[in-house]
Amino acid sequence: MGTRIRRTLAGAGVTAAALTAGVLVSAGGGSTGPAPVAVVAPPPTPSPVASTSEVPYPDLSSVADGVAAAVTAASPRTSVGFVLYDREAGKELATLGADEPYYTASVVKLLIAIDEVRDDTTGAWALPDADAVEDLTDMLEGSNDAIASAFWERNGGNAIVTRTAALLGLAHTTPPADPTQWGMAKTSAGDVLAIYQYLEDTMPDEIAQPILTALGNARNPADDGWDQYFGIPDGLSGMSWQVKQGWMILRSALVLNTTGVVGGRYVVVLLTRQPPISSAKGRAAVTAGIKTLAPLLTRLNAT
């Protein structure tokens, strides 16, 4: 926690290009001042919003396969990790490869943000000063890599992933092998679901709200010029969302992730590792997969 990071970046030369060491070709979205006043929360006791018996579900057996089929039709040989969860019913509706680790790309910024607002020594929750809150906002809304890198370096790098995964009970989330490449941390669709559940249901509201508001205001293009409205924003147009997208171009693969809460009710997580195709085709493939969910979510919202 602490002072505004953007002030410390001038002349530092922190750019997305600095994240291209090793196997990373390009990454975007993915790849001490006064002490704040602490807000101490009681031990969290998350609970589902409603009973699963209150929602009449259609046949859901083909939902995950339909998502994967749409993705791979547009981008053959793509690996898919997927989860669809109904918060209102406390029920997982569809899943595919939910425990399989994928590169986070910029989805790791959710962990960076959570770590920034918690004192790992005392366990107290506290928003940093107004300038640092603005940095968190920019990091999430614009998927700003330079700000993420500054938080990463200031707060311990790989330790951010290790301690936040332990806090949230994430079973398949690990720090990157190269501690300078935060976008190459790994996570699973099931773990990303747990991150959103923690933000929505466990963190103190006054701490989580600035993060969730920023996710609901994700701007397009992102700060690196990337079109980040693939997947959820374009595939579920007309529905409200809070999203964290991720993208990363490797020499051997294109990593594209779309994750978020849709309509305040559904957590949607689609992680992909695609062959080295064009980014436009990759984004279209992810959007095609998410579009298959629109009729289901529209039907459920009508119940």
Automatic annotation (TrEMBL):
InterPro entries: Beta-lactam/transpept-like. Residues 1-27 form the signal peptide. Keywords: Signal. SUPFAM superfamilies: beta-lactamase/transpeptidase-like (SSF56601). This is Serine hydrolase. The lineage of its organism: Bacteria, Bacillati, Actinomycetota, Actinomycetes, Pseudonocardiales.
